[in-house]
Structure formats: structure tokens, C-alpha cells
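Lecture 7 notes: from sequence to structure.
We start with the chain below.
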Amino acid sequence: MPQTRKSDKIANSGENVHIEETKKKEIHYKNVEAKIGKESISAEELAVYLSRKRELSDGDMSEKTIRRYIKKLCRMSKGLLKDSDFKDGNETNSPYLFKPEYHGLLLSFLDTEYFGGKKNDQKLSERIVLHEQIAENVSKYLEPDMQKDIMEDPSYLNALVEGRLSKRINNELAGLINTMYNSEPVMRYQFMIECLDRLVAIRRWMNEWEERIKLIRCMFAKDDEDSVKQEGVEDDLFKYDMLDSLMIKLIYSKVHNKEYKYVSDNELLSYPTAYMAMKLYDITGLKDHEIYMILNQIEEKVSNDCRYRNIMEKAHLLLDSHDYLEGKILDSLDKIVKSQIVSNEADIFPADFNRLIRFIETAVQADKAAIKDILGDTYTDVVLDKRTIDEIMKVKDRIEKQKLSDTSNK
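Predicted C-alpha cells for the same chain:
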């Protein structure tokens, strides 16, 4: 009988110890489920819980998977969140320990297609999908109070509406290409020219709005570094929060036990800012509301301003107001010049931009919700016939002529 070597005994002993430790560390989903929102959990426990929620096979997710997810989340936060924020200790090799205060927020993020695949958060299509899935997870993972706060933020409804619109646009583009390339060869080139003409027109229209928005930001910034510092704003002040940014900031506030301050929709806009909102975002005020009288006085004063009249006289010498394209240019120029004059004369600071965006988003919440309902949910195929499109466009036109008084006097 061969003699057992000492090294084999040590190896077998180590193997037995490893087996015992594995048995001790076996994690059951129900045990983890009982801890969610109540006790801190490890990366291994989070992997077991998330694996079940995603309906994956046992072993498909591990501590290594969670580690990769957290690093990806930290990169998304652009430095706001750090890997150490989720660890039990300050050492590099400290284990992850996720506190109950932010379980729901973290799960809303991690239980999306964005994590687990090679997704690029710079691609608009993938960000739209991410936002929509986070929005759906809000009601799945968060407590009622937190749900309410997030659902009342404009970024939540934007995520749902943009997700539904994105799917419909993709379907229509696919249908358009299919119809065009399967059309009668004699007419196909004409269809392609018409398609190109409309696509270019839409792109130009969007570019015009983007340039107008850039001008809005410049008006609020005024290149005044001192005012920026006084307001305590950061470099990315003019970057409007999407749903993923909001959720990251909420996670940060929970990790560091800080109160997150939403931009209040009860904050009154100054009259100059309200006037600029009307001009630059094409919002129409009610004539029978008291604010209309004040803004109308600003309009009359600006219209009689020598500088404004001089600029517009020069513009009318160059452009024909009866021509469709040139008429649109004149209309945009009129609004931009008036807004610039008000911006130069009034005390408008960078922080007012956030109030302006919040004001506009709040004013159109109900109509955006109506568009979401018309489009149906993610899993419903809505026939986009003329009647449905007309219904959506009717709501869109109502948004563009939204009552300024809805939120200006809260």
C-alpha cells in the first residue's frame, strides 16, 4: 500500500476546509430578499438577488460581476461616485458592503440591459433604453415616498415618453426603408429624393433649435465668472439632468447621508426670465392673466428700443418676410434680439437657467403624460395611423401654446 505523502495530506486537508467554508457561505435568495432595504448586504448576496430578479441561471452572476457593475456605475457618475463608497473600509481590497438606504436606487440601475453588456452610455439609443428601464424599475424597487419624489421629477416622465417615441421612430424608419427599396423601380428615385428632402428639413429644424438653446445659455451665463461663483454652480450647470443623472445624485446623497435638494417647481421665475421663456421656447401666455400685462409691458419697451429697431431694420433689408425660410429666420432673430436686450438689462444669473427649465417642464407635464398614454406601454403595438398622429400633434401644439400662468404664480 503506497504511503500517503505529507503534501497530499495538507492538500486534502485544505480541500476539506474549502468545502466546509463553501457550505457555510452558501447564499439563499430568500435570506437576501429579507435583507433588502433593511440590512447591509455583500456583493455575493447582491449577485444572488439580482440573478434571480433577472431570471438567470445559478452562477451566472458573481461577486466579480457586481464589482464590474459598480466600476461602470462610478464611471457613469463622472467622479461623483467612487468605488470606495460601496466598501466596508478604506482599503483597496476591502469587501463591498451595500447599505440598505440605497438598495432600491442601486437595483433600479443594475437591473437594466445596460449592465451586463457592452453598452455605450454615449449612444443616444442606448441611453434612452437605459432611462426607460430605470423608470420602470422605480415602481419595482423603491419605497412609495421615494417613488413619488422621482415620479414627480420631469426626468422620469421624459424617460418614459422618449422610450416609447424612440421605439415608434425606429419602427417607422425601418418601415420607410423597406417600403422605399421594395417600391416600383421607375418611381423609387423620386421616393428617395422626397425622403431625403424631408429628413434634411427635420435635421435643419432641430439644428436651429439647438443653436437657439446655445444662445439661451450664453444669455444666462453672460460670461460673468463672478456671478457663477456667487451662485455656487458647477461647470456643468447647463446640463439638464436626465433620469440616470438624477438617480446617481440620489445614490450619492444616500451614501454620504446628505439631503438631496430637488429644483422646486414652486420657485417663482423673475419677470425677465419668464419673458425670455416665452420668447425662446415659444410659450404663449394668457391674455386675461395679470402676468400677461407685466410681460406685455416688457414687450412694448423692448419693441421700442432703438437698438432692437436698428437691428431688425437691417435684417428686413436683407431678408424677405414673405419667403417661408427667410420669414422663419426673421422670426427667430426677432426673439433672440429681444431676449438678448432683456438679458443685458436685467439681473439674470446662471442659476435662473435651472429654474427656467424646471418651469417649462412643469408646465407641460400633463400634456407629456397624455402623449405617453396615446403611445401605449413598451409592450403594446400602437398603430400610428393618421388619427393617432393627429392626436399626438394636437397635444404637441397645445404644449407649444401652454398657459404661462399654470406655474408662474404658484
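Points to note: The first strand starts at residue 41 and ends at 42. The CA atoms of residues 8 and 14 lie 10 Å apart.
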